[in-house]
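user: can you give me the structure for this one chain? C-alpha cells are fine.
assistant: on it. calling the predictor now.
[tool input]
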Amino acid sequence: MSIKESNFMKEMIKVINDMWLKGWDERNGGNVSYRLVKEKVEQYKEELKGNRKIELFSELKELAGEYFLVTGTGKYFRNVILEPEVNLGIVKVSEDGKSYTILWGFKNGGRPTSEFPAHLLSHIERIKVTGGESRVVIHTHATNLIALSYILDLTTENFTKQLWKMSTECLVVFPDGIGVIPWMVPGKEEIARATAEKMSKHSMVLWPFHGIFGTGKDLDEAFGLIDTAEKAATILVKVLSMGGKRQTISNEELRALAEGFGVKPLEGVLE
C-alpha cells in the first residue's frame, strides 16, 4: 500500500474536499496541518525519499522529530483530490528544531503553506494544553464567521457568547470559546505568535475579516469544531437579517446546560 492509500492521507483529502464543497476555501484559501503518528508514517519509509531542507523561522525544539502532513502554499483545495502529491507534502522537523525536510509530495518545487508558522506554534500550544492529544490545525475561510467579524464587537467574550446563544450544542462543543485577535497581515510571525498565544486558552481562534483556526485530536474533531461554530454563525446571520432576536437562550440556561453536560464555560462570558 502506498502513502496515497494510507488512512491519514484519505482522511486529509476528504476533510479538505469537504471544506471546498462548503464554499469556505476559494482559490488558494485555507490550509491544514496534521501531526502524524510516527509509527504510522514510518511504515512508508521507502516513499519518504525527499531531501529538500528548509530553515524554520525560529527554533522549535518542542516539535523536534515530528512529521506533518500539510497543504502547500498557493495550492487550491479543489485540486487536492486530483493530485495530492502536488498539493500536499509530508515534512519532518529536524532534531534540533531549526529546519524541516520535505520527504514526500510538493512536486514541482512546492512547499508548505505560508501560514505554516502559525500552524507550528499553534501545535506547540495545543500539545501542551491537551497532553499531546491534539494533532490537527485547520485554517479556513468560513463565510458566516467572517461576516460576523464586521458587525460584532471583536472580543473573545462577546463573540463566544453570541455563538453560544445561537445553538444549544455550542457551549457543549466549545466551552473554551473562540479566541479573537486583532487584524494582522497574514503569513507573518506576528500573527503566528498572536494566534498561538490564544491557542493556549482556546481550541479556536478568529482572524477578523479573514477566517478561523480550529484544532483537535484528529481531522474529524477539528473540522466538526469549526463546522459547529459556522452553523451558529449562519443562524445568527439569518436572525439578524430577519430583524434581530425576540428571544434567546439566557445566561442562566447556559449555566444549567454546562452543569448538565459537565463542561466549564469560559470565564467571563456568562457574567
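assistant: here you go. The longest helix spans residues 219-241. Residues 1 and 229 are 37 Å apart (CA to CA).
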